[in-house]
Amino acid sequence: MNDVKPRRLGDSDLRVSRLCLGGNVFGWTADEPTSFRVLDDYVAGGGTFVDTADGYSAWAPGHRGGESETVIGRWLADRGRPGGLVVATKVSEHPEFRGLSAANVHAAADASRKRLGVDAIDLYYAHFDDAATPLQESARAFSELVDAGKIRHIGLSNYTPDRIRAWLDICADRGLHAPVGVQPHYSLLERGAEDGLVPLARERGLALLPYHGLARGFLTGKYRPGGPAVDSPRAGRASAFLEDGRALRVLTALDTVAERLGVAQGAVALAWLADRPAVASVLASARDPEQLADLLAVGSLVLDEESTALLTEASAA
Fold it and tell me: Can you give the pTM of this predicted structure?
């Protein structure tokens, strides 16, 4: 990825690589030494954008949340922070910091900064909408964190277009710092974002930063009808796509393009997504350096019109 210029994230001063490294596996399916190697290889390959959340990996037995942030923080302390590296994290799902009340947002941000070992979080997301807390309260709390120098920019994750618009309008009416990016579920197999979110992002100058771009691993091509079982925590959900005719059409199209270009299927799937309107960077995780190696091509892979059209048509509902 070294020869590709980072992209601007919305109207912020952040510049990010086309491939964003997801940190959900760090401290979970990737132990600390392996996580360090993945992070090293990602940066060596030109990556400049690491994403995590305070709730990672509270779902795992014996985990309390914050494991991923802690691993990333130790890596930053051990290696020294690479120039231009953007670090994003999220609030609302840590067992001790649930929801988006003002008090919780402030306390969670301090806890995340401590685990990461940073003075300021580059991009701080509201991870999930909190219907129990007024949007005005959450929007003001995030804006106060910017004013305090504890975060640089604000993001929203898993919000509907109507709620995003409402948050933006509150910020405009009250002179608050507004979100610059939105993280939606978006892939060749999940294109619902194109109906309302993409037009909103283009209208308001928001960067889209999709997650699940590989459809839980299905779009890497390792799941095949009649193929061997895959050892992965996501295997059950990924394998469900084998019963979906559209998913199998997409897999065939990915095979065609990947073979023609000489790259992995997963890289093709993410490259298609990276070039969709309003998308600044696409999120993918890797639990070992071998998985990451197949994805690094995303940083410089620009699909030709024929390949893009083939994938777009195959993935149409």
Answer: 0.95
